[in-house]
Amino acid sequence: MKIRSVQAHVLRAKLEAPFAYSRAWYDERWSLIVEITSEDGVSGFGEVYGPARMNAPIVRIYGELLMGRDAGSREAIWEDLYARFRDHGQKGLAVQALSGIDIALWDLAGKTLGKPVHEMMGGPIRRTVPAYATGLYRRHRPDHVAYLREEAAAYAAEGFSAIKLKVGFGFADDVAATRGVRAEIGRDIALMVDANHAYDSVAAIAYGRAVADLDIGWFEEPVPPEDHTGYAAVRAALPMPIAGGECEFTRFGFRDVFTRRLVDIVQPDTCAAGGLTECKKIADMSAAFGIRYIPHCWGTGIAQAAALQLLAVLPSSPPSLHPFEPMLELDRTEHPVRDALSAPIKRDRATVTIPTGPGLGIEIDRKVLARFAAA
Ligand code: CA
Fold this sequence. Notes:
Layout: E1 3-21, E2 24-38, E3 43-48, H1 52-66, H2 74-85, H3 93-113, H4 117-120, E4 128-134, H5 144-158, E5 162-166, H6 171-185, E6 190-194, H7 201-210, E7 216-220, H8 228-237, E8 242-244, H9 250-259, E9 265-266, H10 275-288, E10 292-293, H11 301-311, E11 328-331, H12 336-341, E12 347-348, E13 351-353, H13 366-371
Parallel strand pairs: 4-5, 4-11, 5-6, 6-7, 7-8, 8-9, 9-10
Antiparallel strand pairs: 1-2, 2-3, 4-13, 12-13
Bound molecules: calcium ion.
Calcium ion binds at residues 194, 196, 220-221, 246.
């Protein structure tokens, strides 16, 4: 199972309806898909979360270093690539690109051996997982409380029991949106909020206190990821659980998050924090520190399948008759590449089935790689 080629597919799609989170508007979406092919002609796919055009050359340089290596030696490859660029890439792009390589190697190994990744990782511990709806972004419409309420009601009608609202647009705006959505969905559906680190700790605490009576499931990325003292201040001041981690990387980065207990729920992105190999280690560390693990997921079916394979092997914390179960973050925003690249993941209301096919358990439509290829 020697590596014959490593490709970085940069894909781009225009959106019909632009949408915004607290720091930017989206009018197109980019994806970086990694394809690793063995000498037997089997291809494994991975995905990189991050700026596709900046990550693609790093994937290609990693690829040059992997020609002829045993595709099954995932740990050795991870350690070699990380160590080689450690002095320059302990976080960010270098680890994001490494994540896509690692996921593609797992997919390739699973397809070669005819086993799903979760089986190769020693599972499954669970065969289904609850999904929560990520949506409730801002649009080019002035009546944002009204359309957010409509969208939240639609998720409730679809059967979701947990949904996440984007905040970080200013105190009055956020409080109105949060109160409106909570009033719309009632108290039986969990409501989480995500500021995408648009606040400093003073503003985050002011907003958090103003919505403290609304039974907030978690407050995600209240402050910038580097602001560890800000995280500690927010967590000490507010009653709701604090979440974060999509901008943190590797077991070394998360070690500091865990030892300082900066969050109650940690959210590494499998396609950014180091891939399946590294995220399993981060998850084991989170269990040792008693911190809940709910992966961040924002990509195509490859990212979703990678998250699901990991979710299949996360222990319940703590084991009991009614344990806390980890969830899949299900992005409900427009994503033309995701919708075309592979069949939608199997979902019945809020319950998603872990794919059981070989590797990541999904089939990639190769025509889509060409159709959305960025010029
Ligand atoms: Ca987020």
